[in-house]
Specification:
3 domains; elongated; alpha/beta; 6-stranded mixed sheet; 12 strands; homodimer; Rossmann fold; DNA-binding; 434 Repressor (Amino-terminal Domain)
DNA sequence: CTGAAAGCGCTTACAG
DNA sequence: CTGAAAGCGCTTACAG
């Protein structure tokens, strides 16, 4: 190794790579960006020089000339930590960050400030990012929809109301997921299927009830009673209690979340009701709560980490000006365990 | 359709602001960066122009000339989601992201790839970031310590082994937190205090045992039995069962985490042991598990979101070349509820 | 105290 | 196919 290799002035530049490879920096740039017009022998010389110098392109310089920040913001609600018994955000973030790290977009987390909601919007429209992923709660979604043509955006949940302008959303098909879980109950011979629904002012809550209903009527059965919770274990337990108190005959419960199902299971045990013998339970979402409950839950896996990745992919296509469908569905799968 | 460009040709530049304010762009730059040498009337003219044009500095251009990326990486383990019943990471990330958003550093999430651990290190040393926050598990910490003089770094947990080179860590004082919880038990007249410890190959596990011991011996008492778990509710329940099976007299338990305490509480209820009357329980960490258990837990609040903010602050000082203490303690507080 | 000017490290028309 | 050159939008010595 010659002393020329050890550059003193810090990071090697395009210029240095070009000098070593015996070409201009324009050519180095072309090779690095994969232009196919460069002669093979030059490509090789450049690649060798890049490897030898451990050249890494300067993002700021590239950004400046391309007029792209190469950054993507993921907008999440401030109060997230309080609901973090629900691993949802953590999983999306992780999936998105992992996928982003394999591309040349950097993912940055933007926490919505409850005190100053405008701040987030100003950031997004201030040219700080090439695009944004919106994972906010329903209530703040409409405000972002307005910005959707100032900066490319992909939403992680469908808005409750139809939107004036065309937007892009990536999510699981909640109706289908509920159909899958409920149909499984039907196939196991259950005929009196109640539901513990999610909040009925959220898309997930509404869609999952719809799926439950449609699977039941497809089977020629009558829907059992419905009680709603707020996705937490405690609310699931309370809903289960109300279902029991209602006195209607029930041989199965479809719970709109594993957390609520876990709470329901506890209540059922208290009453010495055998699961699945007396009452079978199927739910949606596969996480800590579905695996550590007694018995473990038969549930629909939403592959939330994959949803994170698909969100990023979809946004990148939007940024690149490609045609993107208004809705991209992330596939889900039924996981059979002992509760059915 | 892409022709909504009625806004005077894209983002305003320094040049445009200068033109409107009647000064050179050098002066605008000085005002924006708060140099005190500028005449008040010019400062005002510039500020007005900035407001009027809604000027936002171009980060890439600034980055390029300052030779700073203005980015900070937060390195977290890949397997995080699996342990996400523990809200720890979510809270640190949230605290860090919120604080960072008030500064001109952008926080980016770097998930360690289990498949290619070198990748993360290459990213960090490739000039992509001005500094890094390391929240990895103990096992991978030593590899990062090696990089600590290639790029500024702050660690979220103290390394188990003494390190060759000087590093900087920000964390709660785990010994002190355990002393606080245990002393509270002592003050309420408990004399036979057992502990459900964390994993004894982690700094938090070790330090909390030490705090428990020292509070007990300070009180002139003898330590009760010790059983270790792995911070999950299930492991806490099992440890509690072993404590009971051991047959030693116990009138209090110090659990090294709220999650383990929650598991212990369930086991105690199964045995119809009254809490706190028969056995008082104090723990560490204030989250979903401490508030939703029956009864709610008396526990030490670790203020994890604040830890996230302090991590960022400390790193920024390091980046700015300031003198930083090797250890920065994040303050904790005792929260009294019904379990003691 | 202020401005003209020289870059920071890239990309990309434009010639050849 | 390749290179010389003109910027991208800032900051900061350097004069005045």
């Amino acid at each position: 190794m010659t002393s020329e290799d050890t550059v003193e002035g810090g990071k090697p530049t395009l210029e240095a790579v070009g000098a070593l490879a015996g070409v201009s920096r324009a050519t180095v740039s072309r090779v690095i960006n994969g232009y196919s017009t460069v002669k093979p022998e030059m490509v090789e010389a450049v690649n060798n020089a890049v490897a030898q110098l451990r050249y890494v392109p300067n993002r700021a310089a590239r950004s400046l000339v391309r007029r792209r920040t190469q950054m993507i913001a993921m907008v999440i609600p401030e109060r997230t930590a309080e609901f973090f018994a629900d691993p949802y955000f953590a999983e999306v973030i992780q999936g998105a960050a992992m996928y982003a790290s394999s591309t040349d977009h950097t993912l940055t987390l933007l926490i919505e400030s409850d005190a100053d909601p405008e701040k987030t919007r100003r950031y997004l429209t201030g040219g700080n990012v090439d695009g944004a992923l919106i994972l906010s709660h329903h209530s703040s979604v409409p405000a972002y929809v307005e910005l959707a043509d100032a900066v490319p955006m992909v939403f992680g949940v469908r808005p409750l109301e139809p939107t004036a302008r065309q937007i892009h959303v990536v999510d699981v098909d909640n109706v289908e997921a509920a159909v899958t879980a409920t149909r499984h109950l039907v196939e196991r011979g259950r005929t009196h299927i109640a539901t513990i629904a999610g909040p009925l002012d959220t898309a997930a809550g509404i869609d999952r009830v719809q799926g439950w209903r449609s699977a039941i009527s497809d089977a020629g059965l009558t829907p059992g009673p419905l009680e709603a919770g707020n996705f937490t274990p405690a609310s699931g337990g309370e809903a289960m209690q109300r279902l029991l108190d209602g006195g209607e005959r029930i041989d199965a419960v479809f719970a709109a979340s594993a957390q609520m199902a876990a709470g329901a299971l506890e209540v059922l045990r208290t009453h010495s009701i055998r699961i699945p013998y007396d009452i079978a339970v199927a739910s949606i979402d596969n996480n800590y709560f579905s695996t550590s409950s007694t018995p473990p839950l038969t549930t629909v896996d939403l592959d939330t980490a994959n949803k994170g990745a698909v969100l990023v992919k979809t946004l990148q296509r939007l940024i690149d000006g490609e045609e993107v469908a208004p809705f991209t569905a992330v596939p889900t799968t039924l996981v059979e365990r002992q509760s059915v």
